[in-house]
Amino acid sequence: MSEIGFGCNQYQLAFYVENAPQFSSYATPNSLIELPPSAINEISMACGNGWRKQFNVYAKFIYNLSSSVFSGKTAAPTWQQYRDTQLLQQGSATALLFSPPNYTRANTLHIIAGRGYAKKLASQNLLGGNLTWLNDEFAYNIENKLLVSPFLDYRQLSNRKIVFLAQMCEQLVQHNCIQLERFQLPQM
Predict the structure, then answer these.
(1) For residue 145, which of 98, 179, 112, 114 has the smallest C-alpha distance?
(2) Cβ(149)–Cβ(49) under 8 Å?
(3) Name one Pfam family in it (predicted).
(4) Domain ranges of the chain
């Protein structure tokens, strides 16, 4: 299965979203494209606030991960600088994919952004296993290092939910489990 999206070919962290931006230079990619430094700003300007929010939330999420889960954030002192100089670029170890998860990559954390998209992939047998739902927004599959989170938007994946998702990632990567008693589910 071909991977389609934006990011580093050696990614270790991937978010999966259903749709690519509708912008001539980056619309409907047919492979994994490492973005040049100006691309995130170009896409945000051409495709609107929704794409700017996705990139912002992705970068904020990375800055909530411990360095034992993802060490790439040390490349920039703030999430804004990381977004502008590292996110989805060569060597960033990050990807934003528009194709179903590829579980053949070792040591990769997969996050599907949005319950609706996760359920669509499940109905097409493209998840590679069953999900355990924690509530209406978060789910996981330990075997595939797969998490489901709200969509990459400030209202759906708020700062509190970003922290929760980061805690889930830490447990999954460090302990190969999700222990709910160690943290509290955020209010929906």
Answers:
(1) 112
(2) no
(3) DUF6942
(4) 5-182
* Separation of alpha carbons 93 and 131, rounded Å: 25
Q: Which long-range contacts (CB under 8 A, 24 or more apart) does 67-75 make?
A: 68/170, 68/173, 68/174, 69/109, 69/166, 69/169, 69/170, 69/173, 69/174, 70/12, 70/13, 70/109, 70/169, 72/12, 72/13
% helix, strand, coil for the chain, step of 5 = 35, 15, 50
- In 3D, which of 163, 133, 161, 130 has the Cα closest to residue 144? 130
Structure tokens at 86: 């590292």
Contacts of 175 (CB under 8 A, 6+ apart): none
Is this model's pTM higher than 0.90 or not? yes
Per residue in 168-181, pLDDT tens? 999 888 877 777 65
Contact 93, 10 (CB under 8 A): yes
**pLDDT per residue as tens digits for the range 24-76:** 677 677 899 999 988 999 898 888 889 999 999 999 999 999 888 888 777 68
